[in-house]
Amino acid sequence: MLTISNLKKQYSNKNILNGVELKIEKGEILGFVGANGAGKTTTLNSITGILNPDEGTIMINGLTASDDLEYKKQFFFIPDTVNVFKNVSGYDWISFMLKLYDQEQTEKLSYFVEQFSMEKAIHKPMGTYSYGMLHKMALIAAFTIEPPIIIMDEPLNGLDPRAVMTFKDCVKNYVKEGGTVFFSTHLLDIAEKICSTVAILKDGKIILHEDIQKVMGEENTLESIFMERQRE
Ligand SMILES: Nc1ncnc2c1ncn2[C@@H]1O[C@H](COP(=O)(O)OP(=O)(O)OP(=O)(O)O)[C@@H](O)[C@H]1O
Predict the structure, then answer these.
(1) CATH class as words, domain 73-179
(2) Confidence at residue 221, expressed as pLDDT on a 0 to 100 scale
(3) ipTM
(4) Which of 20, 41, 80, when mutated, tests ligand 1's pocket best, judged by the most ligand atoms within 8 Å of its CB?
(5) Domain boundaries, the chain
């Protein structure tokens, strides 16, 4: 589904990504973790074309990362900070997104608006939304569009407990229908409950990519595994 090979990126002669290798299979719910500044956003921005890596190749469903629309339609990306046109309503923004992905307005949109309790807000200008509401709106767009893979940078930030539960349910249903999810997070206790696999980024490389149940065994938590790997 998504293959990253030998991804490298430097900032001011400092190696940030130092040969990232990652292969994500269809149906995976991959939690991408790493210390602050490890390079998670840099990796996600390289996949989504926001950033040009110095070296390496990225492919989704056999298409090489590029500005090509066919490549862009393989994923929906939710950045950490969702930047929007302040005077446009959430509904109009999602409708525009649907068009970009060659999709019609569907009942799915109303369903996800209700699931994320955005019925009233969705017709208001996005400039009036809170940080969490902007994330919910982007999640509604992602689950309505149902691209082959949804890529998210810290999607749980700003979500209230009910929205986190909805997020969990939506992710599971989307994957059941054939989707794939790749998201970065620092919330290891929640990732533990949602993800099927985990990848740890350290020193510019993936040092672990494993089935989450297998890596935790019976006694560990994702947090204890993460701390152990950071010390090594
Ligand atoms: N535009 C830039 N110019 C210079 N350095 C940058 C730039 N963007 C990121 N960096 C540096 O690259 C490193 C990786 O940043 P990145 O945002 O990818 O990390 P992250 O793992 O997402 O961190 P966090 O968990 O804190 O969000 C950091 O040291 C950061 O300071």
Answers:
(1) alpha beta
(2) 86
(3) 0.97
(4) 41
(5) 1-28+39-65+196-232, 73-179
